[in-house]
Amino acid sequence: MKYETIRRDLVRFGRRIADKDLVVGAGGNISARSRDVMLIKASGVAFEEAKPEDYIPVSIATGELLEKGRRPSSELPMHLACYRTREDVRAVVHTHSPYATGVASAGVTLRPIFPDFVAVIDSEVPTLPFVTPCGEELAEAVCSVIGKANAALLSNHGVVAVGENLKEAFYRAFIIEEAARALVAGTVLGKVRFLSDEEAARIRGLEKVQYRMNVLKKRK
To answer: Among candidates 12, 1, 5, 53, which has minimal Cα distance to 33?
Structure first.
């Protein structure tokens, strides 16, 4: 079957997203690039029920569906915008993570709060104001920040994270949810201390961190 390997990976990571409670029902969507084509989850399909054929090939250049039948996710324009903006992006994960959505809806920019945040995401996570989902306006808003950031919080909506492979994009989305959970817990107990720029730079410079992140980029 054409795209068999990438479809199998999409099924696997889609189920991990569901297992981590980053979506509910048919919410959220993921895609992965294969040269000039991306495969994206079909509209209305829940991650835990998705089969390989539920990931639909689409031309990145034109947005044309390359297989007839199923309708792709309504967030197709946002995924296309990410791939067109950055050549290094080979996977896009969009979740409706509850803590991250709450933090986004409070208008908070998510800053480095623990070492894995620095190592995996490697940037602040900007928060975009609410934009009606499913259209070009949201795609343009995400495109405006994803050129310099590896993820974004979408106010009253969720998270979008990109990566050089599905594993990297998935872990970025998952760590954002964990960071949002830590931020909420810290705020309840007192004033949250974020890592300084100097502390973040020292973490990035650790040989063990660099090695681990190189492994993550090379493995699916």
So the answer is: 5
Q: Both tokens of residue 162?
A: 């990109």
Alpha-carbon distance of 73 to 117, in angstroms, equals 29
**pLDDT tens digits for range 73-112:** 999 999 999 999 999 999 999 999 999 999 999 988 888 9
Q: Which two tokens stand for residue 193?
A: 């201390």
Which amino acid, residue 139?
A
Burial of 65 (0-12, 13-18, 19+ CB in 10 A): middle
Q: At 156, which CATH number? A: 3.40.225.10
Q: 21 φ, ψ to 5°? A: 60, 35
How many structural domains comprise the chain? 1
Give the number of C-alpha atoms closer than 13 A to the C-alpha of residue 43, restricted to the C-beta side. Answer: 9
pLDDT tens digit sequence for 2-30:
788 999 999 999 999 999 999 998 889 99
**Selection from 150, 144, 4, 43 nearest residue 88 by Cα:** 150
What residues act catalytically?
A: 75
Type and span of the H or E element at 159? strand 158-163
User: Residue 167's domain spans which residues?
Assistant: 4-218
